[in-house]
Amino acid sequence: TCRFDLFFLRSAVYNLINNAIPETPPGGSVTLRASTRETGTFPDGGYVLIEVEDTGRGMPPHVLESILRGDPRTTKPNGTGLGTKIVFNAVAAHKGRFEGRSVEGEGTTFAMRLPLITNGSR
User: Fold this and answer.
1) Is this structure's pTM higher than 0.85?
2) Three-state SS string across the chain, please?
3) Residue 12 burial (10 A CB sphere; 0-12, 13-18, 19+)
4) What is the mean pLDDT of the chain?
5) Which has the closest alpha carbon to 19: 72, 65, 89?
6) Are the CB atoms for 116 and 45 separated by under 8 Å?
7) Rounded to the nearest 5°, which phi and psi values hold at 48?
8) How far apart, in whole angstroms, are the C-alpha atoms of residue 97 and residue 2?
9) For residues 7 and 15, what is the distance between their CA atoms, to the nearest angstrom?
10) How many of the other CB atoms lie within 10 Å of CB of 116?
11) What is the pLDDT of residues 22-65, one digit of tens each?
12) Which of 22, 28, 74, 88 sits a CA distance of 20 to 30 A from 40?
């Protein structure tokens, strides 16, 4: 069973994709993946995984760590960093995990690992 706030998740996925596109050079790619692991206990199992991966510029570890902590960060001239904060808040509201990995010059992957609900509980 999945009980997710679709508005929150739609906003989170939109923000991840919207942030990835300008960081990805022509000829690069932005990929959205979703999968589940129904067996086991969260976080190793019993989850839905939503990932956005790009082949963009990547980011240094301190920037990635800041984003994963929920600190608003932006590299855009008029940006506020609220997009990644929305993702962080959506994951927190679902009692999930916001994960990421990045290699400068190769790209970034952000993931939202959200627990499945079984028998009405999380």
Assistant:
1) yes
2) CCCCCHHHHHHHHHHHHHHHHHHCCCCCCEEEEEEEECCCCCCCCCEEEEEEEECCCCCCHHHHHHHHCCCCCCCCCCCCCHHHHHHHHHHHHCCCEEEEEEECCCEEEEEEEEECCECCEC
3) buried
4) 90
5) 72
6) no
7) -110, 135
8) 16
9) 12
10) 18
11) 999 999 999 999 999 999 999 999 999 999 999 999 999 999 99
12) 88
CA distances (Å), origin 79, targets 18, 62, 100, 118: 12, 19, 21, 39
Instruction: Quote the tokens at residue 5.
Output: 């706030």
Looking up tokens 């920037």, which residue turns up? 63
- At 72, list the tokens: 């608003």
Structural tokens at position 99? 């994960």
Residue with tokens 């199992």: 45
What is the C-alpha to C-alpha distance for residues 39 and 46, in angstroms, rounded to an integer?
A: 5
The answer, yes or no, to whether the previous bond of 26 is cis (omega within 30 of 0) is no
